[in-house]
Amino acid sequence: MTETLLLALLVCKIKGYKLKPLFKSWAFYPILFMECVYIILEISTFMGNYSFVKYAGLFKLLYLYAYLILIIKYKRYFQGAFGAVFIIIGSALNKLVIYANNGKMPVFPSFSYYTGYVKKGITNYNDGLHIFGDSSVKLKFLSDIFDVGYSILSLGDIFIRFFVFIVVVSTIKTLNETL
């Protein structure tokens, strides 16, 4: 979710908000810590270690919980609830495609073959959830089809990331209003 956080920071910078107050807040550092862990896990994947992938769901949950600190500290309750609606929609879309494909999330790597994120010749993810997609996949448009080279996202994943964007932008806006 690093790119979502960076996009939120970029949008705030373009809107003229100062980012320094966010980095001065202790409440932002649990998120930065989780981002560092995420980057380490991505590097591990690039090096061919897929053993942690089975814990990706737990990590995503802990990562999203880190944003609760910002929501509570800066009283961004409405924005947090609004963002949570996107998490619910995204999760429902992911569950729908998983249900339609016998409990598996089809993945369609493309660019990731070139970056090395997915190695050619690997036949499965060994995480019990993801499978490589083929012509038999149902609801392909909801599968993991958005390949950014270091991650393959579904439409549901993109909806979930709206939560991060909304919370970060609203927090930075609030911090700038108090200057």
From TrEMBL:
The chain crosses the membrane at residues 26-43, 55-72, 78-98, 148-172. Keywords: Membrane, Transmembrane, Transmembrane helix. The keyword Transmembrane helix applies. It comes from the Bacteria. This is Uncharacterized protein.
